[in-house]
Write a structure and sequence with these properties.
single chain; alpha+beta; five-stranded antiparallel beta sheet; 2 helices; 5 strands
Length: 139
Amino acid sequence: MKHFLKTLQKTILTRLVLTGILMFFVVACAAVTPEQDNLADRTTVPTATPQTPSNRTLPNPVAEAVLQDASSRSKLPREQLKIAGSQQQSWPDGCLGLAEPETFCPQIVVSGWKVTVQGREKSLVYRTDNTGSLVKLEK
């Protein structure tokens, strides 16, 4: 019976470790954008870097996600907030360069946006991915 329990514990532990590794790769692969899909382009960038200038404008889903968060944080209606500026960026990791203690950040370059929202009295600066599914406030 003792041998059976030890074997069972080892099996469960092995499966948990393998599941964790698999989840890491799933998250990392999901964060890869088509521009990053070339292995030669996958390099760790120490800080956020502006992408080359382009005629791209801030995508509406990104703007909506940022304005929604800004409205929630500032307790102002969205009509009193405006996007004062936006710039495409490449962030050094899955935490958009804003890692918090005890937080796992996939080490993959994430293309996105730096967005400034102007309220009544102050501005809020956000970092996002290209889709607006990941939005973080700079502190």
